[in-house]
Amino acid sequence: MTTLYPSVDTSAFWSKASSSLLRYGGSFTPAAITRAKGAFVYTSDKKRILDFTSGQMSSVLGHGHPEIAQTISSHATELDHLFSGMLSPPVVELAHKLTAMLPNGLDKAMFLSTGGESNEAAIKLAKIYTGGHEVVALAASWHGQTQGAAAATFHSGRRGFGPTMPGSLVLPSPDAYRSRFRYPDGSYDWESELDYGFELIDRQSVGALACVIVEPILSSGGVLVLPPGYLRALKAHCQRRGMLLIVDEAQTGMGRTGKLFAIEHDGVTPDILTLSKTLGAGLPLSAVVTSTVIEQTCFERGFVFYTTHVSDPLPAAVGLKVLEIVQREQLTQRAEIAGRRLIGGLRALQEKYGCIGDVRGQGLMAGLEIVTDRVKKTSDERLGKALADKMFELGLSANVVNLPGSRGMFRLAPPLTVSDEELDLGLSIIEEALRTTPGTLPLSDGN
After folding, report:
1. How far from each other are the two terminal CA atoms of the chain, in whole angstroms?
2. Residue-level pLDDT at 408
3. What CA–CA distance (Å, rounded) separates 150 from 295?
4. Quick one: DSSP state of residue 38?
5. What does the alpha-carbon distance between residue 197 and residue 192 come to, in Å, rounded to a whole number?
6. Cα–Cα distance between 141 and 172 in angstroms, integer?
């Protein structure tokens, strides 16, 4: 039972929301949330909802973790916010511990608030270091909503705002399910696709390439997992052109993919790594990490990124506690094991329902693509929304990406602390939604 908001007048709540809130994309979930604990959120009418997206893909430790709550409380009381040029023990210690966990070449860190902010800083570092201004991203990318990060976001939200930053260039996204680049046997030829993409980049470039920015899993773009070897090939392309490689691990960091950092899957060290969402486990904390050489050069050339909350002690203390818990509780290994259970369960459902065109993912991040038929692979956004609504009615928050061109794509990322029983509950709700929603194309013979 919540003690914060024990009684909410829902009629007044939605009246005030309608009259007072600026809408920032999509529509609001039709429920007043009054409590969040563990893997669940609770509505004003006492309904329990299993959270299969960890809030905004962030709360890797679940909601209301007692050690995180204690860290927030103690620092809110004694060491919360400072002048941006001041340093405190949690900031220095977080930088020291984080860089010690990362490979050589990721040696210096700074701490900000959001993923967009960290990507903005990373792009500015790349520009001042290389002297170039052209930024390359993938076609299904989402890197944030500040000016530079938004210019490198090609998934959606580009129209109606005037020109983006000059030099915003795009590569095809590695989509094994839909790509036209195929070997004679029908398998996905991502290497030819990537090489072709860079041929186009070379034709578009004015000779001022600064960086490529990429997510190891394009989450908003459809939970597209970079193929094995892709990141290594991408870095080679960057090195040949004198560009920096920025890897945005907003959602994949802190063990989500079965490795502490997703760059470990390919054994690639980017020139700049950004972290956010999962680093603060739901609190606004992000990081930019780069090499000693790049940091020194950019400092000498006048790099500036003063913000109100740079090096704030309270979120840094939370980040330290997140690192401690993830390692102590072996949550990276848990993500790998739980991910096999989740993705295996989704693939079992794919054998029963023809509307599931593809199941993909890595670790405890999974994607479920809804189609009108498996031959044409035509996206079914209408059915995706109907299924999401039914799942929520049955007690599961399973995010269908609610943006134009999102293809009826579910992205599922439960907390790393999720139990097997909670995973099975979520899968059973997904199955019940598929069973009771018209148009899901049941397959009686499993074909």
Report:
1. 46
2. 86
3. 24
4. B
5. 8
6. 10
Given a contact cutoff of 8 angstroms between Cβ atoms, the answer to whether 160 and 25 are in contact is no
- Cα atoms in the Cβ-side hemisphere of radius 13 Å centred on 191: 7
What is the distance of C-alpha 2 from the center of its chain?
29
Based on the residue annotation, tell me whether 390 is a catalytic residue of this protein: no
CA distances to 83, 150, 296 from 283, in Å? 20, 22, 30
Structure tokens of 321? 């506690």
The first and second tokens of residue 378, run together, are 């035509």
Provide, for the chain, the percentages of residues in helix, strand and coil under a 3-state DSSP scheme, each rounded to the nearest 5.
40, 20, 45
Distance in angstroms (rounded) separating the CA atoms of residues 307 and 441: 52
215 is an active site residue: yes
What distance in Å separates the CA atoms of residue 392 and residue 51, rounded to the nearest whole number?
10
Of 241, 256, 259, 277, the active-site residue reads 277
Evaluate whether 228 touches 266 at the Cβ level (below 8 Å). Answer: yes
Cα gap 359→21, rounded to integer Å: 36
Distance CA 38, CA 53 (A): 12
The yes-or-no answer on residue 142 being catalytic is yes
Q: Which residue shows structure tokens 């004694």?
A: 78
β-strand 134-138 against 168-171: which pairing, if any? parallel
Q: Which of 248, 249, 271, 312 is catalytic?
A: 248
* Residue 411 annotated as catalytic: yes
| pLDDT tens for each residue of 207-260 | 999 999 999 999 999 999 999 999 999 999 999 999 999 999 999 999 999 999
- pTM of the entire structure? 0.96
Residue type, 43: T
DSSP letters for 289-312: EE-HHHHHHHHHTT-----TTTT-
d(CA 235, CA 270) in angstroms, rounded, equals: 7
- Residues 413 and 251: beta-carbon distance below 8 Å: yes
The full DSSP string for 149-199 is HHHT--SS--TTS----TTEEEE----TTT-S-B-TTS-B-HHHHHHHHHH
Element (H, E) at 136: strand 134-138
Is 251 known to be catalytic? yes
With CA atoms as reference, report the closest residue to 91 among 266, 317, 369. Answer: 317
Element housing 33 (H / E): strand 33-37
- How far is C-alpha 441 from the geometric centre of its chain's CA atoms? 30
One of 35, 251, 256, 360 is an active-site residue; which one? Answer: 251
pLDDT of residue 404: 58
Catalytic residue among 142, 256, 360, 390: 142
